[in-house]
Amino acid sequence: xRKILNYLWRAWFILLLIPTTFFCGIFVIWFSRKLESxxxxxxxxxxxxxxxxxxxGFSPKNIGKSNKKLEKGTSYIIISNHTSIMDVMMMLYLxxxxxxxxxxxxxxxxxxxxxxxxxxxxxxxxRNDPISRASVYTRCAERMKTGQSIVIFPxxxxxxxxDVLVSDWKDGAFKMAENHxxxxxxxxxxxxxxxxxxxxxSGYPGKIRxxxxxxxxxxxxxxxxxxxxxxxxLQALKQNTKL
Length: 243
Prior knowledge:
The protein has 243 residues and is α/β, with parallel strands linked by helices. 44% of the residues lie in helices and 17% in strands.
């Protein structure tokens, strides 16, 4: 019975996804024609994400005790553990005043309808193509000139093994931060990997526990240290994730 309910819940996700993508996508396509008007497109991208987040029965809960927060008017490279498709919606929830774009998989451009919108609001990369990987930095730099932030999941994908808290990290986010001297905002998403996994017969709605772990600055002690950042995240996950 539990699996049947989960399949029905996932079917509801598709029913939410199609009309919200169509409705918001019209405005996103229109306003994303120029980089300068991207904040207007981002407004509708957020509406799309929040409709899916709350429509699936999720509600975010900040469990962090730190008073660190992102400053308005500052561009960031935003990173976190990659746990679920809901990571995207959580990032949209967390950043109402920091219009950002994703660095994402080029393969998603092939998804009918969604792919057309996706490639308008993301910098896509074919990880098997050295030319595509090399051009990411140039394409991101063009968008950052307009004050946009970037969301990158250093793991590059979601590990299907639920026992793996954090997979190996790639260097892209840290190289980009070093090149452009941008601060890195490091988040942790707790339990979302179990709440909305890619296995369609499992998951559950509820409170998504999250935390802004740190903001790494160019002048900081550990500025852009990938190993140190990953260790901060891993320790936080071990302490706060309830398996």
